[in-house]
Design a protein that fits this description.
By secondary structure, the protein is α+β, with helices and mostly antiparallel strands. It has helices at 26-35, 55-60, 68-77; strands spanning 3-5, 10-12, 15-22, 43-44, 47-51, 64-65. The longest helix is centred in the first third of the chain and has 10 residues, at 26-35.
Length: 101
């Protein structure tokens, strides 16, 4: 299992945020996020938003630290990128987020 996280450099709602992604599947991403306590509402299209206060928790749990450009490169190469304003690509059921996520 490889899940990636970028540095908490994204401002929003008075905090700094990281992005947590998988380059394998959304199932892997949802399972990892649940393990570290990310609420389902933190999932946005193709990543979880992780507040700076929980960055170290994600890394301790096994998320690999990479830069933001590497995050985008990896999920694009895996076919998991879902940019704003564009429809989600047609994905097999095994990579679609579950209703419980």
């Amino acid at each position: 299992m490889t899940v990636y996280i970028d540095p908490p450099t994204w401002p929003g709602h008075g905090r700094m945020w990281s992005h947590l992604v998988s380059d394998v599947s959304f199932e892997e991403l949802h399972a990892f996020a649940a393990r570290i306590g990310c609420p389902p509402r933190a999932f946005e299209r193709d990543h979880y938003d992780v507040p700076e206060a929980h960055y170290a928790d994600a890394v301790r749990a096994g998320a690999k630290e990479v830069g933001s450009k590497e995050i985008v490169r990896r999920i694009t190469a895996a076919g998991l990128r879902r940019p704003k304003g564009r429809p989600a690509p047609s994905r097999p059921a095994s990579t679609a987020p579950s209703a419980s996520a």
